[in-house]
């Protein structure tokens, strides 16, 4: 390996650790959160604990705390390279990209989390966007990855097909019907 390869491998390990910690932190947040809006949304969409656990779905609250936790462990540069935060120049602080959203981990074929998709649970018309996705990073290229591809690939050997659907919730819904080969 060259020095450049070694540096990229080092950056990958940090990136991967940050995203995995984020996934687990907010997966646990969803499992213990009982806000009425969140409960109503999950009920309306038929998302049960089984789906939450299978997909490691998480919830980032309106007032998240992960940046404070992670800033003690990682450099500002490493945190920014994760794509999970952006800097608010007006308020001069880091903002979590997925606040007040359900998050869906997007995994590489080997199962490691490389990005997230987030969906608002609010019906508020002032919400900027219904869906927010991770920005491209050195380890995540939007055109090269799909939600649930690592799982669908395993099932495509049995079924010879993979179904392409519109969104995360469509994948979750079909999975509930034992149609696992969806992305």
Q: How are the SSEs ordered, and which strands pair?
A:
Layout: H1 3-32, H2 36-45, H3 49-55, E1 58-60, H4 66-70, H5 76-81, E2 85-88, E3 93-96, E4 101-107, E5 113-120, E6 131-133, H6 149-159, H7 168-176
Antiparallel strand pairs: 1-4, 2-3, 4-5, 5-6
Features:
alpha+beta, 43% helix, single chain, two-stranded antiparallel ribbon, 6 strands, 183 residues
Can you walk me through this structure?
- The protein has about 180 residues and is α+β, with helices and mostly antiparallel strands.
- The chain is about 45% helix and about 15% strand.
- It contains seven helices and six strands; from the N terminus they run αααβααβββββαα.
- A four-stranded antiparallel sheet has the order 1-4-5-6, with helices on one face. A two-stranded antiparallel ribbon has the order 2-3.
- Strand 2 (about 85-90) and strand 3 (about 95) form a beta hairpin.
- The chain starts with a helix and ends in a 7-residue tail after the last helix.
- About 25% of the residues are buried.
- The model has no long low-confidence stretch (mean pLDDT about 90).
